[in-house]
């Protein structure tokens, strides 16, 4: 589709980009005052909400997907769903940022923070829908650079600087490796278009070491983005050093977009994808490779989480483990696999943001992210009991225990892998064993909050009007976690749309 | 009335949860109100269970098949996955529902001593009852699993918050052991779902078409280990003494009285119906492991110095009889096994309550620390003698009948093993009598000369159990008749392979 017709389908991204520019210029005329952060954050949230509305007002897709801007972007249900997910997580990100003391008290550069967050969101939306290697690379760099900036945005301590620099260095190497892999692929096929590369590989029987090298390099770059073993080493440091709200966002939004593009690359280039016949397995049996990476990622993530004493680090390792679980469904090579990935991401967004929100609220009170700061939290009045209960629900849901949404999500992932047939039964066994391992560290936080009779630290400070917003959000997230564990047909219907990708 | 009749199982299962939610919105310092509410919402299921008993058709036979199921409620829940809200009871679950409904109000009575976090405690307890009832009445594999796991969370907190000195260790050990078992079960559930056409979690349909399941031996082991952890069978039993010793009295009662039965219930309900041929070929193994449990549990009990630990190990021993009876694949053995599940629930509940009573007064449970207290607390001693005599299988009390049936049935199949198992009766008698002698008889320890006797609340909680011990010992037919038809069908099913 040509450039001008494409604009109709590009309204959400277009609006958000314009909105960023308006915000940037508008801020020049606003004087800095104490209530300015709240104003900017509200503006940012409003912009995102409008974008979500535009996303829903999408002209109907007549076929499975449309290629926009001469094939740079592919709009389809899969991209649509993941864009919505990124937008919702961006809204929660801003709410969490406004709640956290470290970011909410930055009066002078609140606007930059919001603008960076929105830019990052645009990058995610583009990344999730990229259909062209250059587009993919550019949007990934857009996401990466804004991420580096946001990681180092709040100068908390030397950990922040370390995190930002580490992230930048790792990220630069990873994207360099990835673009090298892409250049090899381009050399082999003569095309940058993902939907053309796959058929070319099949028709011309391309194989050999060069293809494998390029695949390995591309996988390294994508694996870095979604933090899977062995490219996960940056994430605990970055999660620990970054502003907590951004850690929460990093574990959901960019990861979701990363999974969307991983699915696109794997299925479109290496089949079976839209318009592509399944590659003969002698070419590249990526199911097995992804399955092995999945097993290693979840095991390494969970084992490394066990000894952690810092909640953010612990959640970082837990997030690595969850990327491993999600890869299971990617490996299943089925439409149901996409449904499972999306379903799990929605549930993961809810439970992970609610866990991080509690981390923020506790850090606001006690200036600590260490586990022992949570000791006796459940016994500190109604407010403490509420926080501890919400955290418990989120953690047990992350561990995958009914009747919480995380359990249902895990059932989806396991069903996806079991459907694949007996060849991957071992992966399901590895996954359930990992569930048990993960319980050990999730339960340790619960133990700190409820089981420990020692009440450490002062009582929580009394509620103020302003604090009702995050508490309401937290209550909503917890309620959703339970509701999705009991009745999830609506979300199932939504996630099933992801299967259209294969049509 | 019609509504109650049609939805009686739903009401039994969810009334406690309703009460729990009600408690959740009550002010936290209204302790009396909370306790009475909890008692009310556990008594309602008991009354409903009596109704259920009255309306139960003993003659309906058929195991995991629509012919044997009564009070069925079936509604679609998640249609895309063909998960249904499917409740129903047969002769196997009926005694368990009665047991659960009976034990729970007694436990609420026994929880008067809880002073800290009364609101949370009673909320979690009521949630626990919903989970337990749900396991016994659900016939959809997915629903069964959800209830099975729902039970875990309250149990973790109830042991972990209100337990003894090593509560944190005991709670997480219980949690992790049980979770290992349940994730193994989850794999089987999903495998069975995917292999069936059309995909279904319906246990009756899966049982009817059980031949489609592949990897049968592996599936059997996954399920068996999952349930064996719950029973607990040797060598998966190590969580039990910890959990029992650290848990508060009422929770020990629930744990031993009801939760352990879920393991054997699960094996009977699922292993026997989904994999009858493997079950039959494993019967010798099950008989051996049951016998190991009997002897090992009894020997361990004999060695204990802590009264509560002794009762905990005696549970392991008594659950061995259930296994042995199940393994025999004879009508006597199976009836004895299910009867033993019920009887052990009653007797062990009494024993744990009695231990709790003495612990409340003396603040320790060392067997050697007492002596001759029979003269000081005559009513307490009377009930304790009754309970210990029931535990050792004295004729005329309930356990005698079930253990005799088990040994009778098992002897037909495995004479040698049963002979060894029967020697467990002697060890049991030895440790029970020895305990009675050390605690109640002999010279009075002067420290306890002023020990108060049972209070009316304690009598109220012990009397129904004591009455059942005697009544079922003399006339077990009301209970046996409930299960006969279903267990007969089960036996035929397994023997047919």
Characterization of the model:
The complex is a heterodimer of chains A (503) and B (497). Chain A has 503 residues and is mostly helical. Chain A is built from 20 helices and two strands. Chain A has a two-stranded antiparallel ribbon with strand order 1-2. In chain A, strand 1 and strand 2 form a beta hairpin. Chain A is globular. Chain B is mainly α. Chain B has a domain of 216 residues. Chain B has a two-stranded antiparallel ribbon with strand order 1-2. In chain B, strand 1 and strand 2 form a beta hairpin.
Helix content of chain A: over 70%
SS element count, helices of chain B: 21
In what range is the share of β-strand residues of chain B? under 5%
How many helices of chain A? The count is: 20
Largest sheet of chain A: 2 strands, antiparallel
Mind describing the biggest β-sheet of chain B? 2 strands, antiparallel
State the low-pLDDT regions of chain A, or none. 273-282
Oligomer: heterodimer
Low-confidence sequence ranges of chain B: none
In total, the number of strands of chain B is: 2
The termini of chain B sit apart by 43 Å
Query: Which outline of chain B best applies?
Result: globular
Q: Radius of gyration of chain B, Cα only, in angstroms?
A: 21 Å
Sheet with the most strands: spatial strand order of chain B: 1-2
The chain-level structural class of chain A is mainly alpha
Distance between the termini of chain A: 19 Å
Strand order of the largest sheet of chain A: 1-2
List the helices and strands and how they pair.
The complex is a heterodimer of chains A (about 500) and B (about 500).
Chain A: H1 3-6, H2 11-26, H3 36-56, E1 65-68, E2 73-76, H4 77-99, H5 101-104, H6 110-129, H7 133-151, H8 158-189, H9 194-203, H10 209-225, H11 234-241, H12 244-270, H13 286-305, H14 311-331, H15 335-366, H16 381-399, H17 405-419, H18 425-451, H19 468-486, H20 489-496
Chain B: H1 2-6, H2 8-24, H3 31-55, E1 70-78, E2 83-89, H4 93-110, H5 118-137, H6 141-150, H7 152-162, H8 167-195, H9 203-208, H10 216-230, H11 239-246, H12 249-274, H13 276-281, H14 283-303, H15 307-328, H16 331-362, H17 378-391, H18 398-413, H19 415-440, H20 456-474, H21 477-496
Antiparallel strand pairs in B: 1-2
């Amino acid at each position: 589709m040509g450039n001008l017709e494409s604009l109709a389908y590009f309204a959400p991204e277009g609006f958000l980009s314009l909105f960023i520019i308006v915000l940037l210029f508008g801020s020049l005329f606003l004087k800095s005052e104490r209530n300015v952060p709240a104003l900017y954050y509200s503006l940012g949230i409003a912009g995102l909400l409008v974008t979500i509305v535009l996303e829903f007002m999408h002209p109907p897709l007549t076929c499975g997907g449309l290629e926009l801007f001469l094939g740079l972007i592919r709009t389809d249900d899969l991209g649509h769903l993941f864009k919505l997910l990124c937008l919702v997580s961006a809204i929660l990100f801003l709410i969490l940022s406004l709640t956290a003391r470290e970011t909410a008290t930055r009066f002078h550069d609140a606007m930059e923070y919001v603008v960076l967050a929105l830019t990052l969101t645009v990058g995610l939306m583009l990344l999730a829908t990229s259909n062209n290697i250059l587009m993919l690379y550019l949007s990934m760099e857009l996401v990466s650079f804004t991420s580096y900036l946001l990681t180092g945005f709040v100068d908390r301590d030397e950990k922040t600087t370390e995190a930002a620099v580490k992230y930048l260095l790792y990220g630069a190497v990873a994207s360099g490796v990835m673009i090298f892999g892409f250049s090899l692929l381009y050399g082999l096929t003569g095309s940058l278009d993902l939907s053309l590369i796959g058929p070319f590989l099949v028709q011309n029987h391309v194989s050999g070491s060069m293809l494998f090298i390029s695949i390995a390099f591309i996988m390294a770059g994508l694996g870095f983005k979604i933090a899977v073993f062995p490219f996960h080493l940056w994430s605990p440091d970055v999660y620990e050093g970054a502003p907590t709200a951004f850690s929460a966002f990093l574990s959901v939004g960019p990861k979701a977009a990363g999974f969307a593009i991983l699915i696109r690359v794997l299925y479109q280039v290496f089949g079976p994808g839209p318009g592509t016949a399944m590659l003969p397995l002698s070419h590249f049996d990526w199911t097995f490779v992804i399955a092995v990476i999945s097993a290693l990622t979840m095991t390494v993530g969970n084992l490394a989480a066990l000894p952690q004493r810092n909640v953010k680090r612990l959640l970082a390792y837990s997030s690595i483990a969850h990327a491993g679980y999600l890869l299971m469904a990617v490996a299943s090579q089925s439409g149901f696999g996409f449904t499972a990935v999306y379903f799990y991401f929605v549930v993961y967004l809810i439970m992970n943001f609610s866990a991080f929100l509690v981390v923020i609220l506790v850090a606001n009170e006690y200036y600590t992210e260490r586990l022992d700061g949570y000791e006796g939290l459940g016994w500190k009045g109604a407010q403490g009991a509420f926080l501890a209960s919400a955290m418990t629900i989120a953690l047990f849901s992350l561990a995958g225990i009914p009747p919480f949404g995380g359990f249902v999500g895990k059932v989806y992932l396991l069903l996806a892998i079991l459907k694949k047939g007996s060849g991957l039964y071992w992966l399901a066994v590895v996954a359930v064993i990992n569930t048990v391992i993960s319980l050990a560290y999730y339960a340790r936080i619960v133990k700190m909050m409820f089981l420990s009779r020692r009440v450490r630290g002062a009582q929580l400070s009394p509620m103020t009007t302003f604090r009702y917003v995050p508490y309401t959000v937290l209550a909503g997230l917890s309620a959703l976690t339970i509701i999705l564990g009991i009745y999830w047909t609506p979300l199932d219907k939504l996630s099933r749309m992801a299967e259209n990708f294969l049509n | 009335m019609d509504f109650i009749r049609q939805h009686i199982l739903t009401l039994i299962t969810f009334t406690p949860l309703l009460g729990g939610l009600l408690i959740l919105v009550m002010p936290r310092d209204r302790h009396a109100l909370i306790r009475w509410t909890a008692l009310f919402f556990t008594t309602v299921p008991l009354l409903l269970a009596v109704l259920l008993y009255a309306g139960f058709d003993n003659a309906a036979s058929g195991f995991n098949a629509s012919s044997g199921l009564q009070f069925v409620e079936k509604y679609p829940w998640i249609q895309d996955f063909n998960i249904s809200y499917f409740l129903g009871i047969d002769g196997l679950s009926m005694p368990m529902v009665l047991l659960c409904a009976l034990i729970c109000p007694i436990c609420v009575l026994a929880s008067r001593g809880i002073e800290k976090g009364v609101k949370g405690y009673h909320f979690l307890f009521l949630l626990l009852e919903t989970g337990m009832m749900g396991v016994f009445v659900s016939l959809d594999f997915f629903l069964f699993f959800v209830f099975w796991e729902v039970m875990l969370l309250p149990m973790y907190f109830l042991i972990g918050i209100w337990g003894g000195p090593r509560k944190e260790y005991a709670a997480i050990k219980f949690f992790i052991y049980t979770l290992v078992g349940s994730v193994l079960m989850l794999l089987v559930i999903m495998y069975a779902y995917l292999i069936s056409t059309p995909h279904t979690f319906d246990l009756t349909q899966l049982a009817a078409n059980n031949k489609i399941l592949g990897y049968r031996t592996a599936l059997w082991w996954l399920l068996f280990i999952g349930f064996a952890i719950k029973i607990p069978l040797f060598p998966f039993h190590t969580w039990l003494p910890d959990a029992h010793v650290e848990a508060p009295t009422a929770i020990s009662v629930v744990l031993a009285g009801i939760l352990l039965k879920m393991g054997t219930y699960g094996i009977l309900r699922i292993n026997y119906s989904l994999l009858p041929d493997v079950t039959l070929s494993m019967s010798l193994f099950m008989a051996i492991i049951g016998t190991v449990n009997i002897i090992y549990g009894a020997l361990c009990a004999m060695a204990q110095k802590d009264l509560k630990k002794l009762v905990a190990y005696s549970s392991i021993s008594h659950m061995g009889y259930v296994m042995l009876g199940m393994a025999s694949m004879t009508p006597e053995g199976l009836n004895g096994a299910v009867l033993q599940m019920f009887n052990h629930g009653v007797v062990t509940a009494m024993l744990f309550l009695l231990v709790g009573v003495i612990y409340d007064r003396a603040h320790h449970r060392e067997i050697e620390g007492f002596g001759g207290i029979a003269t000081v607390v005559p009513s307490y001693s009377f009930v304790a003698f009754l309970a210990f005599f029931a535990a050792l299988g004295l004729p005329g009390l309930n356990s005698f009948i079930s253990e005799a049936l088990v040994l009778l049935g098992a002897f037909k199949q495995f004479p040698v093993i049963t002979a060894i198992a029967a020697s467990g009766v002697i060890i049991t008698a030895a440790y029970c009598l020895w305990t009675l002698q050390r605690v109640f008889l002999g010279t009075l320890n002067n420290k306890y000369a002023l020990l108060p006797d049972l209070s009316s609340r304690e009598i109220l909680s012990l009397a129904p159990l004591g009455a059942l011990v005697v009544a079922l010992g003399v006339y077990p037919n009301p209970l046996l008749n409930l299960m006969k038809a279903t267990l007969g069908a089960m036996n035929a099913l397994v023997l047919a392979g």
